[in-house]
Every structure is written in structure tokens, then in C-alpha cells.
Amino acid sequence: MSSTPEPKHVAGHHRDTLLQIFQHPTSHNVEWHDVISLLQTIGTIEERHDDMFVFRIGEEREVLRRPKQKDMDTQQLVDLRRMLTSAGYDTVVAEFEAKGKED
Q1: Which end of the chain is more exposed for a tag (fewer CB within 10 A), N or C?
Q2: 0.90 cut: is pTM over it?
Q3: 54 by DSSP, 3-state: which?
Q4: Could you give the 3-state DSSP secondary structure of residue 21?
């Protein structure tokens, strides 16, 4: 069994996007380009045909289709949240929420 690497540091706009992804109830204003930017910072993205994207963070992997609108849909956010939780980012979000958004 391999260990999961430590989550990478997230700051600024990426921190806000991460907090939006984990928001309950699920936010309906999480923009695709913000998610792409965050995931390029903390993982890798492979664009496939038909607007399909493979996101990887450590050993975690999620395949999503680019939304028709600018915002992610609820199921995509749930899937991203699962992947980010498995990669340890739920603890990062908990730390941000405990400290507040001001550093």
C-alpha cells in the first residue's frame, strides 16, 4: 500500500476555489476555468477528445466533461470533492475554515 503525498500548498484564488468546491450546500457558481487553474497547480490535467478531461492528484483520478456553461454542475463538484478528499485536501479546507480566510 503506497502513501498519499502531502497536499500541495494552496493560496489566493486557488484557496477560494477549493473552499467553493467543499461548500455545503454545493455552490452553483464554481467556474470551470477556476477548477482547471486549481487542478493545474495541485495535479495534472490531460485533455481528451469530446471535451473530456482526466484530472490527477497523486494516485487519485477523475474524468469529467467540460460543462456547456461556465459553471460546474453539482455532480461534477461532488466527484471533484471525492477526489480532493482522497488526496487529503479535506484537511486543508478544514484548516482554512478554522483559521478563516485571512492569513
Answers
A1: N
A2: no
A3: strand
A4: helix
User: What is the Cα–Cα distance from 102 to 86, expressed in whole angstroms?
Assistant: 26
Strand positions, DSSP E, the chain: 44-47, 52-57, 60-65
Query: Around Cβ 25, how many Cβ atoms within 10 Å?
Result: 6
The predicted-structure confidence for 61-99, as pLDDT tens digits, reads as follows 999 999 999 999 999 999 999 999 999 999 999 988 888
The CA distance from 97 to 31, in Å, is 21
Residues 82 and 88: their CA atoms lie apart, in Å, by 10
Dist. CA 48–CA 71, nearest whole Å: 20
Is residue 91 within 8 A of residue 7, CB to CB? The reply is yes
Chain centroid, CA 39 distance in Å: 6
> Is cis: bond before 7, omega within 30 of 0?
no
Please state, in angstroms and rounded to a whole number, the distance separating the CA atoms of residues 87 and 2.
12
